[in-house]
Amino acid sequence: MRALFLVVLCAGLSCASSDNHQDNIETLMDNVLVLRVPHGVGSRVYVPLTCGEAYQNQPVHWKKNGMELDPPLQGNQVSVLVEEMDGGNYTCHLGPDGEYLNHTLILIQLEPDNKTVILVEKSPEEGYIHCSASNYKGSFHCSWTKTESRSNAAVLLVKAERHLENILCELSADGSGVHCEDVNCPYKEEQHRITVTIYIHSYSRLEVYTKSFYLREIVRPEKLSNLRARNRVFSWSYPESWETPSTFFSLHFQVKVVPIGHSCNSEGLIPDNITEKTEYEIAVKPKKYVFCVRAQDKFTRGPWSHWINCMVNKEDSTC
């Protein structure tokens, strides 16, 4: 009698453990359910599915990832047992071999989501998502890199917002980045951060990555234009994409001289100099060298632009 009582008790606890997860089932978007399960703990959760109100009295049959279920699953409203990370795409059909009616994709998200396997961390400071903008007009781009073992991963959803206002974004064709346009941004003082959230899945595993920033933190001026040389005087222009007037949107410039054959990131023949003028006269003696210059927002001190350079070989210069 006691043994029978223990069996019944264990069965009841098992059902409770699977039913208590109902609060961890979330509708992410149309036809997509997210089941959040504890990280490192085995789980068995019954997830309710509905084919649709229009099919209430129809002979509805279900498949998982295109395969018949064993035993067969029938009915407009059903529950499926999801064990561990075994989610999938459940489709409902009119009869065993009938036409497709609807589907529900069940994805699994570990909670807490502290084990990321889909995207590569760019750096501890930058995280998994890199965002940049060439000016303050509100347009910015974010990118990410998939790990080699999860190259099949697909972006399911991208959300961008600033203080509860949605920002329009468009995913790149290869799914490696997104271009966004904050139409309320230009020339406004930023009081709230932009938050970009990427929902990406590999098979049934869903991972969510978030990046928050002020636009002023990610603005990197484009390369300077019209670099030219006359004797030892070099001049250049602001990037064409940069805002005007320059008195309000000011840049300052870093200049250096490096030996021929070296990159602009090498140690220079002269110490790195900062100037607010758009020309610079050098006083170095070598007749062969490379002159390098790049720009940065004078006030926000955000990212530097990429270098541009002139190669000087005696009396000849190539910019």
Automatic annotation (TrEMBL):
The Ig-like domain, residue ranges: 42-92
UniProt cross-references to InterPro entries, sorted A to Z: FN3_dom, FN3_sf, Ig-like_dom, Ig-like_fold, IL-12, IL-12_beta, IL-12_beta_cen-dom
UniProt KW keywords: Cytokine, Disulfide bond, Glycoprotein, Immunoglobulin domain, Secreted, Signal
Gene3D superfamilies in the cross-refs: Immunoglobulins
Pfam families: IL12p40_C
Signal peptide range: 1-18
Compartments, as annotated in UniProt: Secreted
Molecular function (Gene Ontology), one example: cytokine activity
Principal subcellular localisation of the protein: secreted
Single GO cellular component term: extracellular space
Top-level taxon: Eukaryota
Family per similarity comment: Belongs to the IL-12B family.
Subunit record text: Heterodimer with IL12A; disulfide-linked. The heterodimer is known as interleukin IL-12.
Name listed for the protein in its UniProt record: Interleukin-12 subunit beta
Organism name: Channa striata
